[in-house]
Amino acid sequence: MNGFKTWNIGLLKRKIIQILATGKTLIVLALMSMLFFIMLGVGGLAEKSLNTSPVSSMKGLASTLSSGFFAEMLGMEVPHLKPEKSESSDVFSGKHMTNFVFQLLTNINPSDPKSLVSREVPGLGNNSPILLRASSRGGTPTAPEDYRTDNRIWDGSGKTPDTDKDKVDDPSQGNGSSGKPGNSKDSGDKDGDSSATQPSKNKVKAVMVYHSHPHESYNPLLGTKTDNPSSANRSKNVGVVGDFIAEELEKKGVGAHHVFEDYMKEVSGYNYNYSYKYSRATLKDALADYQTLNYFIDIHRDSQSYKKTTTTIEGVSYAQIYFIIGHGNPDWRKNEAFASKIHERMEKAYPGLSRGIWGKTSAQGNGEYNQSLSPNSLLIEVGGIDNSEEELQRSSKILADIIADVYFEDQKAKKASTVQAGKNTVKNTDKGKKQTTDLNHS
Fold it and tell me: What's the pLDDT band for 238 if we cut at 50, 70, 90?
């Protein structure tokens, strides 16, 4: 009998010890989990305050998915929201998700073998923007591409350096130039090499169109077939796109100031690496002449081939448009908001015409692109090296029309805000008078 009772007590003791040990383990695990999530939250807050660029963030995942995917996800819970035709099967595919997750974890893009060695070879990863907004056409996003140079300094020989190293412009390094370009006022020679702008029908200048890389050209306009067409003739390079945009803005009633500065000819000791330093001086000159300027559009062209820079909408071909946002600008989110207004309108009316909005840090290029001068400053690449004049003109017209719409919408909102502020002032004044009268009567 005693032996039986002793056995029961021993079993009970072991169970109690086991329960206590398990409880301690659970408590320790709970405390460790709590500490982990607290550290994760603090780290997230620190990252948000210290790093304004969405590099390697979940925003990259969102940008790889179309709006149709999110509509279908909502449709699973709300039946009447489910789209008739599924768009997510292609966009939310195993290939896209695998590529995204692999790149998020390793910083290597399986679709771009160059990314395997980009960190080891200086300059090789400089043209790797971050996708902020994707095109509605889906497919694997293809980033705009900069043509590389050998960092030569312009020697006045008449030979155009091949491309820009896209380094941050640093006046302190010196390049034998003051960086002061020629006169930016209207001079009228559309086809010549000198600086020229189109006469404006509208007295108030609101939009400035300019070119940091003025010699970027197009093979069909030159009658060539090279991987880096360049020309000083503004009717055969990005200057012609600037003319298309400025002329269309004028037709829409928006004062446009198009400046074409041939920095290679005008700047002594020209260095292609300081392209944005030169164009920044051009912007400041223009602001001194026209204080009403508030929208700045730097027109470039992509260095990729026809297939990657062209889209067909209802049987008509268009040069695709890329929006570049510089994360070297602390207020880049305001510039992205401006780009998003244009991108979203373009996607709604001409799906696939916009190739997306891309962000570049200072480690991936200039990183600022004169965008700190105004929240309405953008770098826009129109087409690529093989787009025709007709395709460029079609896309330029659409781009200008949308910029004009955004401009008038902003003016309307600004006017409404001014009127409301006036009403509030009158209301406060009347209230003050009433209080004064009441005091006098009392």
Answer: very high
Residue 188 has a pLDDT of: 37
Q: What percent of the chain has pLDDT over 70?
A: 60
Contact 138, 87 (CB under 8 A): yes
Q: Which two tokens mark 86?
A: 């599924």
- Which of the pair, 366 or 263, is modelled with greater confidence? 263
- How many angstroms separate the Cα of 202 from the Cα of each of 256, 266, 320, 337? 8, 29, 29, 27
Task: Tell the residue number behind the tokens 């086991």, with chain if given.
Answer: 18
Tokens of 246: 């400025």
Find out whether 325 and 358 touch, Cβ atoms under 8 Å. yes
| Residue 181 and residue 281 in contact, taking contact as beta carbons nearer than 8 Å | yes
Look up residue 333 and give its two tokens: 């989110």
Q: How many CB atoms lie within 10 A of CB 166?
A: 23
Beta-sheet pairing, 321-326 with 316-319:
unpaired
CA distances 126 to 123, 168, 268, 272, 386, Å, are 5, 11, 27, 16, 23
Which two three-digit tokens encode residue 418?
A: 């001014």
11 band by pLDDT with thresholds 50, 70 and 90: confident
Burial call 106-143: b when 16+ CB within 10 Å, e when fewer: eebbeebeebeebeeeeeebbbbbbbbbbbbbbeebbb
Q: Which H or E run includes 209?
A: strand 207-210
Could you tell me the end-to-end alpha-carbon distance of the chain, in angstroms, rounded to an integer?
101
Angle at 348 between CA 343 and CA 351, to 5 degrees: 85
Count of other CB atoms within 10 angstroms of residue 84: 4
Sort strands 256-258 and 377-382 into parallel, antiparallel or unpaired.
Answer: unpaired
Residue 113 to residue 165: CA distance in whole angstroms: 21
Q: Could you give the dihedral angle defined by the CA atoms of residues 173, 212, 308 and 68, in that order, rounded to the nearest 10 degrees?
A: 100
Q: How large is the greatest C-alpha to C-alpha distance in the chain, in angstroms? A: 117
Tell me the C-alpha distance between 325 and 340, whole Å: 11
